[in-house]
């Protein structure tokens, strides 16, 4: 089963392909995505990488958590499930 990892501290200029390429050294990468700010279209500096299995995910955590990547220190850990948000108030401004 695939394991999704949270990756923080991603340099703003990094592409999803570069992120996938980096993590492929630890094992099979199912997907890599960088979160983009809707307003600016710029990277938010974090993303998610889905590894092929738990062992490869743990290898990636061991290899990259706390390591320097393109001048920034990466934070890598198992992603937590998305928690539901409270409904937003939609009153006109």
The gist of it:
The chain has 93 residues and is an alpha+beta fold.
Derived structural class: alpha+beta
Strand segment tally: 6
- The CATH class turns out to be Alpha Beta
Q: What is the residue-averaged pLDDT?
A: 92
Number of helices: 2
The fraction of residues assigned to DSSP E strands is 25-35%
Separation, N- and C-terminal Cα atoms: 46 Å
Characterize the main sheet. Answer: 4 strands, antiparallel
CA gyration radius, whole angstroms? 15 Å
Shape annotation: globular
Assembly context of the chains: single chain
- At the fourth level of CATH, the homologous superfamily is RRM (RNA recognition motif) domain
**Spans with pLDDT under 50 lasting ≥5 residues?**
none
Q: What count of domains describes the coordinates?
A: 1
* Fraction of helical residues: 10-25%
Order of helices and strands: EHEEHEEE
Strand order, biggest sheet?
2-3-1-6
Question: In CATH terms, what is the fold-level topology?
Answer: Alpha-Beta Plaits
Second rung of CATH, namely the architecture: 2-Layer Sandwich
């Amino acid at each position: 089963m695939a394991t999704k990892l949270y990756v923080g501290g991603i340099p703003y200029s990094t592409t999803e392909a570069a992120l996938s390429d980096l993590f492929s050294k630890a094992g099979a990468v199912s997907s890599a995505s960088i979160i983009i700010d809707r307003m600016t279209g710029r990277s938010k500096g974090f993303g998610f990488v889905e590894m092929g299995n738990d062992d490869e995910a743990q290898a990636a955590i061991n290899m990259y958590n706390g390591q320097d990547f393109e001048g920034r220190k990466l934070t890598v850990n198992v992603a937590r499930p998305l928690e539901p948000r409270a409904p937003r108030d939609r009153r006109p401004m």
